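Hi everyone,

Forwarding the result from last night's run.
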Amino acid sequence: MKHIQIRFGETIEAYPGKEKSFEEMFQSVNPMFSFSKRVWKPQMDIFETRAEIVIQAEIAGVNKEDIIIEISDKAVKISGTRPNKQPDRTATYRLAEIQFGQFERVLYLPSVIDLDQVSARITNGFLRLKLGKISRANEVFP
């Protein structure tokens, strides 16, 4: 059975930064400049209940085995790759908004989590990551 890879660690490192090339700076003007060469950020929601933190990421077209989740007590890094599935390389694109290639997102957590209570699943193009919280006696929750 294929599964989503989850790594636990002390720190989370973001994708190493580099100076942007001319093509990368103008990708929003013409996305074909660097089709799948830059790291993109999937859209995400994060919410908290009394018992857990839930992160939902929109990652349609990404296979489970192409996702890596790294978790520390302070942050979560969700990264991976969406394969480029251009239907026709000879086509002239009039609009190209769907991003392919490497993606990465680092989210800083609002509460300390219990590393023994972590689960992840993908349904209908959405990754749902549940992180159980460590309860604190004096914690005030709205």
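The radius of gyration is 18 Å.

Cheers,
N.
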